[in-house]
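Study this fold:
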Amino acid sequence: MKLFRNSLTVIVACSMLALPCLATAQTAPAISPAISTPDKVETRIGTLDFKDGMPSKETIAKIYDHR
């Protein structure tokens, strides 16, 4: 009985030490600059403005007017 209790104690202790390794946070990888949109783009129809990749209302109007 004492051998079983000692073995169980060792197993529980090892399990408790291994738990922090299993509970690590996952983070998103950094966005590659090759696929990111700059804030301003100079084109032949004028300057196009973007905020976080989303075009401004003026930029959308320029694109629709150019078509």
User: Anything to note?
Assistant: The beta strands are 40-43, 46-51, 54-55. The longest helix spans residues 2-22. The two ends are 85 Å apart (CA to CA).
